[in-house]
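Changelog excerpt

This revision adds worked examples to the README so contributors can see how folded entries look when concatenated. The first example is reproduced verbatim below.
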Amino acid sequence: MKISKILFVLALLSVLLIGGTPNFDGNKSYEYLKKQTEFGPRNPGSIGYKNCKEWLINFSESNSDKVILQNFIGTDPKTDEKIPMTNIITRFNPEQTDRIMLSAHWDTRPWADARNSKTKRDKPISGANDGASGIAVLLHIMELINENDLDFGVDIILWDGEDIGREGHPYEFCQGSRYYSNNIIEPKPQEGILLDMIGDADLEIPFEVNSMNINSNLMIDIWNIASHLNYGNIFIKQYGPEMYDDHMPLSYIADIPTIDIIDFKYPNENKNYWHTHDDTADKCSARSLKIIGDVLVYWLYNK
């Protein structure tokens, strides 16, 4: 009995010393990444898209206070076909006006049209990193928030129609976040963090140029947290590529200052898997997902 009491006290002290921050399980998150890819390509209108959507909705409903399905009609810019799409909006403390947003896109690219693609350029991709990785981190964060209450509101949003644009036409992309930005669901978050392409086994996250212009204070906070957690070699304090991503309509149309955490050099400067059929689960890692998850969970529970 005395030993049990001592162990209980030690466990309680360890929780207090780390600030009550829940543990992010990279292996569990990686299983969620693989689960998405097992549905096949999730480009809007496909069988994989429909099956994954059902799974994501069921998962969200089981691990949140409220789920809102924001349905809209997107456009395939190659054919001008109108396609039903859905943003999956998961809310915690839905009535709380003090709230933040975490988001990523769940759709995948309908074409493997990167410049280094040689074959099957008109076929949809698996999207393990470009799509599934950000969602995999958010799904596990949903579980952690569901089990460990926060005293402010959180919206975790899975965007549709992010990756259906043509190269060189940035405003054809981000269809889901643009629709949301013009049809905001109140109460509105005060700021946000977007995840994209964060599962790369060769992970390196530089400052994204637009994000620094949009919300430099949040960028510095996140990169400092990463350094505090000994991930300073991953979250590097130098500028990387300038991105047009879901954070742009959120910041400039919705007026929700949102930063983009992204490793666009996938896997590195010498090789590219982005928008190719090589974007598969074996190119991603549980460790990379854990790094991103650790930083975000620390930020959430030590705000």
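The second example, added in the same revision:
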Amino acid sequence: MIWTIYFVILAYFILGFIGFFFINRKKEKKEAQKSWLKFITYFFIIHLLFFSIAFMPALFRIISVVIIAVGFYELFSIHSKAGYLKKPFFMLSAVIFSFLAIGFYFFTGLNSGLILYSFLILSIFDSFSQISGQLWGRTKLLPKISPHKTLEGLAGGAVVAVLSSYLLNDLVGDTFLGPVVLAFGITVFAFLGDITASYYKRKYNAKDFSRLLPGHGGFLDRFDSLIAVGAFVVVGDFVFRI
């Protein structure tokens, strides 16, 4: 089953490649190169996480610790570069991130099928939000927080992610919310995680959390949604399975 799902994901990547081709052909050469670099980096990240979740859970837990540790570093780094301004906001952000990080860490100890399902739905939502937003996006959602987010992008990503839950439901079966409702919840918290991270950057006038990931910026630029989704799934699993 894992290999069948893997080939399904490869098919999604082919669709994403086609989407990026049409998007990048309209961009200037330098901007298009940056977009392709982001796509290639994302391809490798997805594969690393997919195979670690499916075959090496201990490695995925190690990766989660690295993500959390670097995330704390990036939060503090932006705060320090801004001259340690807005300390109450930073402290509140650090507390919120701490709770999310704890949830994300416990997420790595859940059933591997549930982890993989959550990760894939999130990845599909993230990818197709960007593609549909760049192809058809017109209506800005939160221009002062995240200028590139559009209603069309959000809707496109959510629709593809929720429909994909029917292809991936064997991973979770009769899960605590049901595959479709769970997929919808994942898209909501993925969006909230992304927007929250963007809001933090805007408060300090920062474009990216760091430059550690080519084409993406920092770890929190790439994994903000994964951390939020992981915490959501852990809480949902705990509450509905008591």
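Reviewer comment on example two: The mean pLDDT is 91. The helical segments are 2-24, 29-55, 57-81, 87-107, 112-136, 151-168, 179-203, 219-240.
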